C-alpha cells in the first residue's frame, strides 16, 4: 500500500517523511534537517507541478495523490510517459547535473508535493550512502522503464497498445493477484498512448466483456493475466480467410426445338 501524507503546512513532519522509501533509513538528525528544509504544496487536478525546461532547483517528493509525466512532441501532441504515486520522488536528474527539467509533470488528482532545495538534496546524497545507492538504482530503472515505454508507443495496433500499457503498470499483490492500482482515467490513458478516449473505452469494455479484466473502484483487476499478456505481445488473432474459387461452366446451347411436320 502506498504511503499517504495528508498534512499540509510550511514544512513536513519527520515521522511522516519516514514513510517515503528513499528517506526511511535516515538518522534522526538527517530526517530532522530534511523536514525543516522541505516545503509542502497542494496541487489541484490538471495543475502543472513542474514545466519542461524550467530550472532544476529542487528534489520533489509526492506525498499524496498521483502525478503524470508528460512530454510534447515536435508536432505539439502531448504524450504521457510515466505515473508517480505517493512515496515516489522525481526531479533527481536536474538536481544531479544542474540542468533544466527534462519533462513536464501534472497532477492527475489533488496531490501534495514536498520540495527539497537542491543544496539539501546534494548534501543528503553525499552524507547518506543508502540514499545515493537508491538514487543510482532508481535512475538505472528509470532508463530501462522509459525505453520499454517508448517501445510500447511504437506498437501499431491501438488494441495491442492498450493491453501493453496495462501490462506495463500492473503489479502482483500478495496472494498472486495482478492489479493496476490507481487506474488513470480513460482520457489520461489516451494521452499516454496517443489515441482517443473513445478508443480506450472500447478496448477496456471489450476486455471486461471477455472477463480478462474487472474494474474495482480506482483499480483494475487482471483476472486472466496470461490472456492479457498474449494480447499485449501478439495483438488480436487474425482470422485466416480461405478464398474459394468457384468455376462457372459455360452455358450449354439450348437443344433445337422440334419442328411441326408439314
From TrEMBL:
A single MF term (Gene Ontology): DNA binding
Coiled coil: none
Gene Ontology CC terms, in alphabetical order: cytosol
Keywords linked to the UniProt accession: DNA-binding, Transcription, Transcription regulation
Listed InterPro entries: cNMP-bd_CS, cNMP-bd_dom, cNMP-bd_dom_sf, Env_Response_Regulators, HTH_CRP, RmlC-like_jellyroll, WH-like_DNA-bd_sf, WH_DNA-bd_sf
SUPFAM superfamilies: cAMP-binding domain-like, Winged helix' DNA-binding domain
Gene3D superfamilies from the UniProt entry: Jelly Rolls, Winged helix-like DNA-binding domain superfamily/Winged helix DNA-binding domain
Pfam families: cNMP_binding, HTH_Crp_2
PROSITE patterns: CNMP_BINDING_2, CNMP_BINDING_3, HTH_CRP_2
PANTHER family associated with the record: CRP FAMILY TRANSCRIPTIONAL REGULATORY PROTEIN, HTH-TYPE TRANSCRIPTIONAL REGULATOR ARCR
Protein name stated in the entry: Crp/Fnr family transcriptional regulator
Species of provenance: Denitratisoma oestradiolicum
Amino acid at each position: 500500500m502506498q504511503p499517504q501524507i495528508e498534512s499540509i503546512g510550511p514544512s513536513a513532519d519527520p515521522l511522516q517523511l519516514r514513510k517515503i522509501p528513499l528517506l526511511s533509513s535516515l538518522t534522526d538528525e538527517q530526517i530532522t534537517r530534511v523536514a525543516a528544509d522541505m516545503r509542502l504544496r497542494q496541487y489541484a487536478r490538471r495543475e502543472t507541478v513542474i514545466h519542461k525546461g524550467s530550472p532544476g532547483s529542487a528534489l520533489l517528493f509526492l506525498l499524496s495523490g498521483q502525478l503524470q509525466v508528460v512530454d510534447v512532441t515536435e508536432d505539439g501532441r502531448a504524450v504521457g510517459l510515466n505515473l508517480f504515486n505517493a512515496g515516489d520522488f522525481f526531479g533527481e536528474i536536474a538536481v544531479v547535473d544542474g540542468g533544466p527539467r527534462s519533462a513536464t509533470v501534472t497532477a492527475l488528482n489533488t496531490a501534495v508535493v514536498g520540495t527539497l532545495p537542491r543544496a539539501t538534496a546534494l548534501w543528503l546524497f553525499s552524507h547518506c550512502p543508502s540514499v545515493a545507492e537508491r538514487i543510482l538504482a532508481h535512475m538505472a530503472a528509470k532508463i530501462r522503464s522509459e525505453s520499454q515505454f517508448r517501445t510500447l508507443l511504437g506498437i501499431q495496433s491501438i488494441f495491442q497498445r492498450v493491453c501493453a500499457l496495462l501490462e506495463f503498470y500492473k503489479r502482483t499483490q500478495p496472494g498472486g493477484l495482478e492489479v493496476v492500482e490507481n487506474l488513470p482515467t480513460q482520457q489520461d490513458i489516451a494521452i499516454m498512448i496517443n489515441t482517443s478516449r473513445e478508443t480506450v473505452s472500447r478496448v477496456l469494455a471489450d476486455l471486461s466483456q471477455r472477463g480478462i479484466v474487472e474494474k474495482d473502484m480506482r483499480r483494475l483487476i487482471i483476472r486472466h493475466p496470461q490472456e492479457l499478456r498474449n494480447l499485449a505481445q501478439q495483438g488480436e488473432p487474425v482470422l485466416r480467410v480461405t478464398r474459394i474459387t468457384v468455376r462457372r461452366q459455360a452455358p450449354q446451347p439450348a437443344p433445337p426445338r422440334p419442328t411441326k411436320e408439314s
